[in-house]
Input
Amino acid sequence: MRADRGGAAHTLGGMRLAFGASFDVPAGYLNTPSIGIPPTLTTDAVRESVQRWGAGADHPADFDEHVRRARAAFAKLVGFDADDVAAGASGSQVAGIVAASVPDGSRVLVARGEFTSLTFPFAAQAHRGVKVTEADLADIPSEVDGHDVVAVSVVQSANGAEVDLAALREAAAAAGTRVLLDATQAVGWMPLDLGWADWVVAAAYKWMLCPRGAAWLAVRPDALDELVVHSANWYGGEDPWQSIYGLPLRLARSARRLDISPVWLAQVGATASLEYLSTLDMAEVRAHSVRLTDALLAELDLPGTGSAIVSLELDDEQGRRLAEAGVRSGSRAGRTRLGFHLYNSEEDVELVVRALKH
Output
């Protein structure tokens, strides 16, 4: 079942059709910042892979092509070359590679209230003298000078606020400060060109609509040698299938040296979802998502934010009414978090409005 490559999501035969794909997602599902809903082409691919697993039909090397294709699609979405992307399993795992590699005594700047999968890996390096300093998100660019690394999310998990990437890039270049961007809450709904950053990490199971168990670390080539391969393993070998036994160490020359042994089913699903997303005009996806969030905020007499994520201060009664109306949301930092993605429509906005204005 297919739909036009753009335009508002609509329902046909129980399926939502949007941006050229079908989604088995119920009305009121606004919890994408927690768990993204895959297109049916992805669930079909994973289901077929599970069936092959159950029939003993696969060999380990059969999944290498999925790892390669998912890597290439992710690279396209964030503005890197595929050779500069390492495949991992979670956001904190790939961010931890950077955190564990910064020199002793490094000064790291992070956003106040940042998602801890980005900040905890650095805070855990305190025994090496690594000092982590928090600043308000809006002040990050002006506070860069005097720090060795800035680690910040492109879009904040708690409320959808965006860091000023242009200002951060300029400030970091002037100060000679390395930049680690977490794009987990951005890739899949925003057009991104992040190849200027030293490192970009992202987990796949939210806006990228992939199974949990896939994440990537994109590395600018001149920042690769600064990373220590703390989890060196056979899959990071120049030729993984010739790197299984015995010394000497023989890792890939590219960022692939940082790969960990892949979560196979996650990579199967990531290939399907990311190759689909990489064919879309992300400016159109962003316009669609932001139009819905801003429409909701206007109905609630609140100013638009320009983000796909909405954070609302609701009382217990309002939260109960949302749940009874079938609205799926998240609770973050004491507020109700909603996210509008490509499969959402005006129907979802109306559900929320009716519940809150009841």
Summary: The chain has a mean pLDDT of 95.
